[in-house]
Design a protein that fits this description.
Layout lengths: L1 H21 L11 E3 L2 E3 L26 H7 L3 H14 L3 H15 L5 H5 L8 H4 L3
Antiparallel strand pairs: 1-2
Length: 134
């Protein structure tokens, strides 16, 4: 289950980064954040500082994983992102090989800055349109 969540997270991350880097993301960045009980929420009611729960950016629960932040940020381009995921699946049918290729793709193209350094929070999710502007 953990491997599946990791693989899904990596796929979503690759798709979001690819879309941001190629200029396909057309959504509007969230401009307003509100703080409630130490968590930050965006205009859409998504908690940017917590992945789990009904309002978390990945909506991780005991029974599921729904990366809602990708849906909110990809808008009309969600079909393109899904198509790209299918291409990865076709090109690399072995799950382990596919996960490795996605890992290398992300590793070689993403400059990592910790959320703590960039946003002063242990965790802070950005959607694709926001990544394109940072």
């Amino acid at each position: 289950m953990k491997k599946l969540k990791l693989l899904l997270s990596l796929i979503i991350l690759v798709l979001v980064i690819w879309l941001a880097a190629t200029g396909y993301v057309l959504a509007t960045p969230s401009e307003g954040f509100r703080e409630t009980d130490g968590d930050l929420f965006d205009d859409w009611g998504i908690c940017r500082t917590r992945a789990s729960g009904e309002d978390g950016f990945y909506q991780i629960s005991e029974t599921g994983f729904r990366p809602v932040i990708a849906f909110e940020s990809l808008g009309e381009e969600a079909n393109l992102a899904y198509s790209l995921g299918e291409q990865f699946a076709q090109k690399y049918p072995d799950q382990r090989q596919r996960a490795e290729k996605i890992f290398y793709f992300v590793r070689d193209r993403v400059k990592y800055t910790s959320d703590k350094d960039q946003f002063k929070h242990d965790e802070f999710a950005q959607n694709a349109d926001e990544l394109a502007t940072t």
